[in-house]
Amino acid sequence: MKNTKRKKNNVVRIFFVSLLKSVLFMIVLLLAGFASYKVSYTILSDGRGNVRTSKGDIADIIEEAQTDEISKNLIYVCNGDRIVSLMLEICNTNTNNMDYVTIPARTEFTIPTTMYQKLCTVNEEIPQIVRLGRLKTYFANDEDAFGYGELIIEKMLGVKISYYTVLDYETFKNHYRRKWVNVVFKQDTATATPDADGNIPSSQTTRVAERIAIASSSYINQLKDIAGDQEKIAEYIKEQYERVNSNLTVYNKIGY
Q1: Are 87 and 103 in contact (CB under 8 A)?
Q2: Is 61 helix (H, G, I), strand (E, B) or coil?
Q3: Structural domain boundaries of the chain?
């Protein structure tokens, strides 16, 4: 009888010990998951860990945007929930030159493994091969989509992007026009595909037709009308910022 009672006590004790361990394990798991999310969101951009969220016109994503002597502005063009076009606006304040690089929205990019693992803590269902035009579908909100999208495109292009701007489709049509051009892509021999005889050509080129975005004549004339007048330029930028989102403040935009 005593043995039976002792066995019951042992079973009860083992049960509660196991239950306590399970509860502690779940608490540790939840804390680790939350910490992993916060750390990855903080260090995803070059490990600098300077993430802040302000309550101004738009939250600063990943890092505080700033202008350089040669600044690169990633422009997202959105029509509803879709990103229909992307451009990289390169402004050289030394030469007063502005160049645009069109990035096709249908471009697909394989995210490097290390970066992909960190992004999975934000959304575990994000694919490793992403289509740029679908960035908004991979994240819970637009700010994350544009902020993390900036990092993905940085990795894809191999350049440091200064800030991003989001235009609606109507504003885009008022400022830019589409033009068909022939684009020649050149492939390095290191990644070239051998021919039927197994020989690797010295270079491979592919010619395709692409639609690029260029500034419209009316937009260029509008900018010419305010050129050299600081007050008009500042007022124009303030008006534009009422129709766009950006992680660059209007103050910094006016500054450069």
Answers
A1: yes
A2: coil
A3: 70-190+204-255
Separation in Å, CA 30 to CA 17, 83, 137, 157: 20, 34, 26, 36
CA distance 161 to 89: 10
* Alpha helices (runs of H) in 120-243, residue ranges in sequence order: 142-157, 169-175, 217-226, 230-241
The pairing of beta strand 163-168 with beta strand 70-79: parallel
70-190+204-255 CATH fold: Aminopeptidase (3.40.630)
Burial (CB count within 10 angstroms: exposed 0-12, middle 13-18, buried 19+), residue 57: middle
Longest dimension (CA), the chain: 102
Report CA-CA distances (Å) from 98 to 36, 183, 214, 224.
Answer: 40, 20, 11, 13
Instruction: Check: pTM over 0.90? Answer yes or no.
Output: no
Q: What does the pLDDT look like over 181-207, one tens digit per residue?
A: 887 766 665 555 666 666 666 666 777
